Amino acid sequence: DISPNLENIEVVGGLQDNGTLYFNSDTSEPSLTINDMITGGDGAYCFFDNNDPILITSTYYNAWYRFNIETNEFDYENNSSGVFINPSDYDSENNILYANKVRFNGTQNNRIIKIEDDFDASTIQLNTNTSVYFSSLKVSPNNSNLFLGTQSGRLYKVNNIGESNNVEEITDNNFP
User: Fold this and answer.
1) How far apart are CA 59 and CA 45, in angstroms?
2) Which of the four pLDDT bands, split at 50, 70 and 90, describes residue 52?
3) How many Å from the N-terminal Cα to the C-terminal Cα in the chain?
4) Is 77 helix (H, G, I), strand (E, B) or coil?
5) Are the C-beta atoms of 58 and 45 separated by less than 8 Å?
6) Are 122 and 113 in contact (CB under 8 A)?
7) Do 75 and 66 contact (CB within 8 A), yes or no?
8) For 70, what's the count of Cα atoms within 13 Å in the CB-facing half-sphere?
9) Residues 6+ apart with CB under 8 A from 141
10) 113 with 99: CB under 8 angstroms?
């Protein structure tokens, strides 16, 4: 992810098998090095908060770190669910992370995880009638909708995510 901070360049990236690297043009060397690693192991999805000095990184199976960039404090949450490199998206306006909860074998079907500002996780049950995992999640930047794509090519729109969770399949006949 790239930080919305316009004063300097901040970039974070999860590198599966090679940790997560964080680059800040104010404090880092001119190029990325091993010294810029903020977590080891299997780095994955990363997000900057657009309104707060917060950076969120993931490792495998819904394990998450939340860093306060200003104070260097961090929290860790391990939900031990989903798939190895688990799809997710972050709602910066509401400080909520949404992530797939469905396992490769179909257990936890129709579920996503919601991790709120206090880093407490809860499960949201959806009525998608699919047992495959959600391979893509995207929070709408304009409203409280969440879009979910599945490994089998289905696309769903969740209206009012976190409230009514009204699910509508919007897969089109032209989809592969």
Assistant:
1) 8
2) very high
3) 29
4) strand
5) yes
6) yes
7) yes
8) 4
9) none
10) yes
Query: Nearest Cα to 122, choosing from 63, 59, 79?
Result: 79
pTM of the model: 0.91
Q: What is the CA radius of gyration of the chain?
A: 17
| Per-residue pLDDT tens digits for 120-164 | 889 999 989 888 999 999 999 888 899 999 988 999 999 988 788
Q: In what order do the strands lie in the sheet with 20-24?
A: 10-14, 20-24, 37-39
Per-residue pLDDT tens for 87-100? 999 999 999 999 99
Residue at 21: amino acid letter:
L
CA 128 to chain CA centroid, nearest Å: 20
